[in-house]
Amino acid sequence: MTTLVTGSAGHLGEALMRTLRAEGVPVLGIDRLPSPWTDRVGDIADAAFVRESMAGVTQVLHTATLHKPHVQTHARQAFIDTNVTGTLNLLEAAATEGVSGVVFTSTTSAFGAALRPPPGAPAVWVDETLAPVVRNIYGATKIAAEDLCELMHRLTRLPVLVLRTSRFFPEDDDDPTALLRRTQDNLQANEFLHRRVDIEDVVEAHRVALREAPRIGFGRFIVSATTPFRREDCAALGRDAVTVLHQRLPGWEAVYAREGWTPPETLDRVYDNRAAREVLGWQPKVDIAAALARLEATGDIRSPLAQRIGKKGYHRQA
């Protein structure tokens, strides 16, 4: 009963390896980079390496990817090699091996330009029915990989679940101007309102997905912290998020005042995790209220797992 974890040197890969190893679960980590969590070093774009790594594997957690920051440093072909060809190699090897389930880590960034309404327009309510509008090669290859997951399920009946995860990494915001207005801790606390998830909850989502994959067969699920907002709030959130926040989240003001933080003036999107909770059966523990309570109790908004992993950056630039 060996679980294969791809991208074991990355944020989520390490989190999964740490958690599974600590529980005594037989697990094999693979990555292009050596690390304490990598058992085999190699490239998932290499079909032979993937086939060799899949021998004896019963479940697959596929987190390896080129990320959005790599758009500035890597050729588009590199995204196709890793995110598309690598995923296809894993799916074909998993189907041949007869694994009980594959969980593919995708991203809410796959929704692309659909997440960016004009200024003052209602916030976008993001659930699994929202149609992606590709914005860059990262999103294009993640959508292509998701479609390969669905295709391989139809062709081979391989159970595959796609988890579109929101932000869980501790790195600085990809908008450098954001740090001119707020600290990184302030920004990430604000994100728990609508577009962030704790890495411990992401790990649990993957574990639940492995368990439920044979029952569900194929599905796409948004993995993000449960928002305090409702769909009917979207118009107001696009104009004045603070007023809505006063209505939906009592008690936030004292914590923000003590930290010298400010809430977001407006929001452009809100991720809805209802399907992951109701269909998949995932129950996230950390929402904005829990994150603020942890900050008050420990002085740190991050979970213990996030603190242990720390900032990793991304694979060396090309």
Automatic annotation (TrEMBL):
Sequence ranges assigned to domain NAD-dependent epimerase/dehydratase in this UniProt record: 4-212
Organism field: Sphaerotilus mobilis
A Pfam family matched in the record: Epimerase
Protein name as it appears in the record: Nucleoside-diphosphate-sugar epimerase
Top-level taxon: Bacteria
Record InterPro entries: Epimerase_deHydtase, Lipid_A_modif_metabolic_enz, NAD(P)-bd_dom_sf
